[in-house]
Design brief:
It is a single chain. The protein is an all-beta fold and about 120 residues long. About 0% of the residues lie in helices and about 50% in strands. The strands form two sheets. Strands 2, 4, 5, 6, 9, 10 and 11 form a seven-stranded mixed sheet that branches. The chain is globular and about 40 Å long. The mean pLDDT is about 95.
Length: about 120
């Protein structure tokens, strides 16, 4: 069993930055691949990016070059650094964990989910 708690969301103007954190507890954090997803009102949950157990990061085309995912296994935390934010980035952001050597783009692959944190980007 793994518990995930996101934090760091808020209101920011277009072009600004936010860093989201996802703190994990309950299992050995380093054994999990981690994903970030987001969901805007009326839309399906969308893949943002992920980071494998080995520390390799992957990104959706929509955020590539603007967002950076990292992990600190000593702190049991994964981060999503978001720069050059756009209004279309507005969503609830979720972190997820999968007990696999891989990370995945599909929500169904993940074993554990956080409660989400709201990110609102104003124009």
């Amino acid at each position: 069993q793994v518990q995930l708690v996101e934090s760091g969301g808020g209101l920011v103007q277009a072009g600004g930055s936010l860093r989201l954190s996802c703190a994990a507890s309950g299992r050995t954090f380093s054994s999990f691949g981690m994903g970030w997803f987001r969901q805007a009102p009326g839309k399906e949950r969308e893949y943002v990016g992920g980071i494998s157990r080995s520390g390799t990061s992957y990104y959706a085309d929509s955020v590539k070059g603007r967002f950076t995912i990292s992990r600190d296994n000593a702190k049991n935390t994964v981060y999503l650094q978001m720069n050059s934010l756009k209004p279309e980035d507005t969503a609830v952001y979720y972190c997820a964990a999968v007990s696999s050597i891989n990370v995945y783009t599909q929500t169904s692959r993940y074993d554990y989910w956080g409660q989400g944190t709201q990110v609102t980007v104003s124009s």
